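Margin note: ligand = 2-phosphoglycolic acid.
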Amino acid sequence: MAVRPFIVGNWKMNGTRAMLSEVRAIDRASQRLMKVEVALAPPFTLIHAAHKEVEQIGVGAQDCHSGDGGASTGDVSAAMVLDAGAKFVILGHSERRQGHDETNAVVRTKAASALAAGLRIILCCGESEAVRDAGKAEAFVLSQLSESLPDGLQNASEMLTIAYEPIWAIGTGRTPTVEEIGAMHRAIRALIVDSYGEEQAQGVRILYGGSVKPDNALELLSDDEVGGALVGGASLSAESFLGIVLAAAEIPD
Ligand code: PGA
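Resulting structure:
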């Protein structure tokens, strides 16, 4: 792994204040694993409380609205999550694309608003099983990403992370091979170089996500182009999440 690995937990619609003990345990252990950048994205309701608990790890949001504020019942703006203590936001997760009809254009607008508010973004992409079976995974992911990436981003290396998450691998226990992940990440890297230039692109980490567990993390993270992991189910307990962080710490520079 050429860059400092980034391991991000996505708690999805899980977590009440009772789970702040997991946040604390993850944070304290991460202080001894400085080689790895660790972050958690709890639900909106826990961002502020989690932010108050941590000394080392980052806290982020799983989504934000593209608007600045106003008459939009139930929505939360980028400035609001920043104010609650979020440093980053996950955007374009397949569960939002599918369950909330988020198009690439919507994701791109959200990305622009988040960046304007000062949030780093983790932009998700990934193909369905049907698209992979049809041999079109790379073309699909590249067009999804190029339509979702914000224009004119000057400091991509600092502000942008990509998460490649094949939909068929999320929560299923199935994963692509290391070679398939490596090939997709190289194609994504080429797109990022085209979009933001070689120098900025070098610092952009491309995470893999989809059924990452402590026992497969070392292998899934082994390709040089894999800059870390976006972890769902296995991030809900400190024990399993830290198993993944430990695996990332073992990968030679
Ligand atoms: P999973 O989810 O680790 O439970 O497969 C990953 C994600 O959706 O980010």
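Residues 10, 165, 170-171, 209-212, 230-234 surround 2-phosphoglycolic acid (CB under 6 Å).
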